[in-house]
Amino acid sequence: MSGWWFAISLLLAGCSVSEPNRQATFSGIAFFSISWQVRVSNLPANVNAQQLQTELQQALDDVNKTLSTYQPDTELMRFNAGPIDQCLPVSKVLGETVSKALLLSEKTQGRYDITVGPLVNLWGFGPQARPEKTPTASAIAEARKQTGWQSLQVDTSNACITKHKAVALDASSLGEGVGVQALASVLARHGIDQYLISVAGVSQARGKRPDGLLWRVAIESADGGGRPALAIALDNAVISTSGSYRNYYELDGVRYSHTIDPLTGQPITHKGVSVTVVSKTLDAILVDAWATALNVLGPKEGLQLAEQEGLAAYFIEKTADGFVTHHSGESAQFLPTE
Ligand code: ADP
Ligand code: MG
């Protein structure tokens, strides 16, 4: 993140309450780089806004201390450095995150894989520096050997995880969802039940806006061409968008996305630019992971799996004739009818 953006973000951090109905806004920076926001329709009279702002930020900082790959001393990094073939004790958050990731690996036959980190780093999207050249086939083969969700085993009763080979976790694809869930727990603790939470591309809505209408979240138009974005009304639902348009780089005229297809060990090559998943039943962690998983699969295979799973998914694809959209049958209920 560039310095000026960080400076602006800090200015945006804070909270405000407007009387008499006590509608309130809270915001800040999560994971050192992304913005979060919570809007509450009616803050209970006994809740101090400044105190709540601190608790919300703390909840996200705790998630960062658990899951980040950008600091060596997080729980996840300690797990990564830990021995193989031993059930290593993990916190509830890490255990839940890995369990949900493994569920999606099963459903996507490994195209979604929380152990994809070595490939992400090799392509320059992790904590390490960008490559000046695309990785060689042997470097890709080497990194692929260090991946494999099948070598992870979660023991929920003993709250521990075993890795049967030296794989490393990379929770970047569902960390925002974990953050949203952590914020929702803070709000629940205070009896707040009318809110919209957003952590970067993941949002969760509960109840109604102060004006009594449903909360709305815009799907960013992926072409960056200023086309009007689609507004999705959320009736107690979670939404997540995963895209190749925000995080990519160009090398010798080719665009490389931060989404890696474990099948090839390379960034995705399909023409899907973004996937949005909306759900009234799945939690924020799963919805976030699903958006990434469907982004790996792309508009064709991803749409098929979404139909099979009864998921509401909305794809934007770049074709020779411009941007086209595809959506699963389940999405119709969320799309605006005009
Ligand atoms: P964003 O939050 O920018 O929309 P995502 O939620 O889709 O992005 O997460 C992208 C991140 O997920 C990548 O930066 C990488 O760390 C990780 N990742 C990349 N490919 C995969 C994959 N096949 N399975 C799981 N995680 C992946
Ligand atoms: Mg994701």
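qc> The first strand starts at residue 14 and ends at 18.
qc> done
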